[in-house]
Design brief:
Layout lengths: L4 H8 L16 H9 L4 E3 L8 H8 L28 E2 H4 L4 H4 L11 H17 L10 H7 L12 H10 L50 H4 L3 E6 L3 H11 L2 E8 L5 E6 L6 E15 L2 E7 L11 E5 L12 E5 L2
Parallel strand pairs: 5-8
Antiparallel strand pairs: 1-5, 2-6, 3-9, 4-6, 6-7, 7-8
Helix pairs in contact: 6-7
This protein binds 2-acetamido-2-deoxy-beta-D-glucopyranose (4 copies).
Length: 332
Amino acid sequence: MKILFFIIVVLATTTTVNFGKSTPHFLSDDLINFINSKNTTWKAGRNFNINTSDFLTKRISNILPRKEIKHTLPTKIHSVDLEAIPEFFDAREAWPECASVIGDIKDQGACVAGWAFAAVGTIGDRICIHSNATIQMNLSAIDLMTCSNECNYGCTGGLLVEGWYYWSTVGIVTGGKYGTNDGCKPYSIEPCDHYDSETCGIGYAPDCVKVCDEGSSLEYESDLKTGAPYYVVQSEVQMQTEIMTNGPIASSFKVYEDFFLYESGVYQQVTGRYFRREAAKLIGWGVENGVPYWLAVNSWNENWGENGYFRILRGSNECEIETEPLAGIPKF
Ligand SMILES: *[C@@H]1O[C@H](CO)[C@@H](O)[C@H](O)[C@H]1NC(C)=O
Ligand SMILES: *[C@@H]1O[C@H](CO)[C@@H](O)[C@H](O)[C@H]1NC(C)=O
Ligand SMILES: *[C@@H]1O[C@H](CO)[C@@H](O)[C@H](O)[C@H]1NC(C)=O
Ligand SMILES: *[C@@H]1O[C@H](CO)[C@@H](O)[C@H](O)[C@H]1NC(C)=O
């Protein structure tokens, strides 16, 4: 499988709206007002202090040259029963004992770790779902980001597919939120309050250490969780069938400048330059005012979007969210 990063970056810089010479700053009130003046399916608002634009452009959105992934990525093909696919689905309601796991909103801080949170979040949800809620744990994003380093670069970015490959071949230890003693390797990068530019400094990932944090009674090797198989599900109905059958899936998508301003509704790109790919957990779908959407969990804390969630246009591969959704089955 080839990841055509450079081609994607070049093609994606074409914007859908031409502001002429006076392009507003991507976090400005002018851009918020512009989006809200359009008759679109979502509302823009202020999620980020305008002074966090450096943090967003340099940190949350870094794109490094990537190695080509060499792992084969199997495609799962479900036999689809269209009649069985409901109009609305929410994994929290389908598996109520796992609702708090599925709906937990993370904060990646000033670190390009969305891909890692999407992977460990989806895997954690599936551990709960496939164990009939008898096993509940948080998996360590920092372990995945720092130790799966074939194509992943600490706080400067990584590939979702590499996360699944690493999980299925090596395994990932437990680890909860920053500042907790939850698991073997809790997240070590501070949360970022988007409204306060002072707290959004630059996050640095530590080196890979295959030892649990001081104070943890767990042993690294025996805490590793793995699974198999992992696979891609392509097309809207395959994704729906996979979510209904096995739980949330992880998908990467293209982030344009206007996505930072998302406040509520069903997102679709209105304006803005392409930034980079981000990844999120897809936990369900629905229809609002006739507009079909995916229900997604982001890792930009609860102060972003719909309390940390967002909804994005479904069925037309908006921002490539339906291009390479990934999933896998945990082993116990
Ligand atoms: C806005 O969009 C809705 C739904 O597509 C449509 O019914 C309505 O006429 C539009 N309004 C304007 C002012 O374009
Ligand atoms: C942004 O930074 C400038 C210069 O330090 C400061 O004057 C301004 O108040 C800040 N704006 C916000 C919204 O914090
Ligand atoms: C979960 O429940 C199903 C249905 O009762 C059962 O077949 C399966 O073995 C259970 N799985 C675990 C891991 O307990
Ligand atoms: C996972 O993390 C969340 C958020 O910090 C916490 O509420 C929950 O208790 C953790 N789960 C486990 C099993 O420790």
